[in-house]
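Quick one:
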Amino acid sequence: MPFREINSKMVEATVVPGQRMFSQRGAMLAYRGDVSFTPNIAGGQGGVMSMIGRRVAGEATPLMTVEGNGTVMFGHGGHHIQVIRLTGDTLFVEADRLLAFDGTLEQGTMFMGSQGGVMGMVRGQVTGQGLFTTTLKGHGAVAVMAHGGVIELPITPGRAVHVDPQAYVAHHGDVRNKLSTALGWRDMVGRGSGEAFQLELSGNGSVYVQASEEKL
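Output:
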């Protein structure tokens, strides 16, 4: 596993010859060894067409490729960092929350309308994800950023998890999700502006929730 959590806001990654990593540009804090950092201009989030699509929507996040032999410390903006380990499943996460991740993971971009139609697109706007979200699939580790720390909530068959859209960070596994309305829900138990929406996640996997309703 390439990531070692130094504290809640910094991680250290091990880089070995023949393997690469990706990180958000500007996230490198320090490094040891013979390590190179190259701007990723090939559309790392799902290829050239996906990159173009995201740029049209104003949702592209620049990445850099990290290669060599050594260790690199990552952090960004003082945000809390959560390391998520994938074992063959898919992580759904907004691109600007990605701090760094294994180059072995298959990158993609999913149109929010493909999950729930119009309500899926509404969900993208409510959560701040816009019209697209990033997917990472395979075996490896991902370091994501959040406000105020993150808690992992398991999603098990027959027991759905409901999440404030503004507190949602990411999810992975065989999970179905939908945006539902609950009149007065956010006024009663949330700290939002009264928008009566909640995310309902069901299936088998995990959802990551931050201790804040702030966007990055």
